[in-house]
Amino acid sequence: MQVKVDKDLDSALKLLKKKLVKEGIFKEIKARKHYEKPSVKKKRKSNEAKRQKN
Q1: Among 44, 19, 43, 50, which residue's Cα sits nearest to residue 30?
Q2: What is the pTM of this model?
Q3: Is residue 46 one of the residues assigned to a domain?
């Protein structure tokens, strides 16, 4: 990501964080921090889907 000269650092960091959240990178980092058994992963994804449905 390139920052224009007229932009300050805070706005550049804000823009970077917004892009990372949009792409789901923070979720992926959190998920890969520790090993998750396949059964637990499946259950978590199912619960997330239920939460989004409601």
Answers
A1: 44
A2: 0.51
A3: yes
Question: pLDDT 10s per residue in the chain (54 long)?
Answer: 676 767 788 888 888 899 989 998 988 888 889 999 999 999 999 999 999 987
Tell me how far apart the alpha carbons of residues 34 and 19 are, in angstroms, rounded to a whole number.
24
* Among candidate residues 48, 54, 8, the one with its CA nearest the CA of residue 24: 48
Question: Domain residues for 13?
Answer: 9-53
Number of structural domains (the chain) is 1
Residue with tokens 């890969």: 32
Q: Cα–Cα distance between 32 and 24 in angstroms, integer?
A: 12
Strand (E) positions, the chain? none
Residue 36 tokens, joined: 């998750």
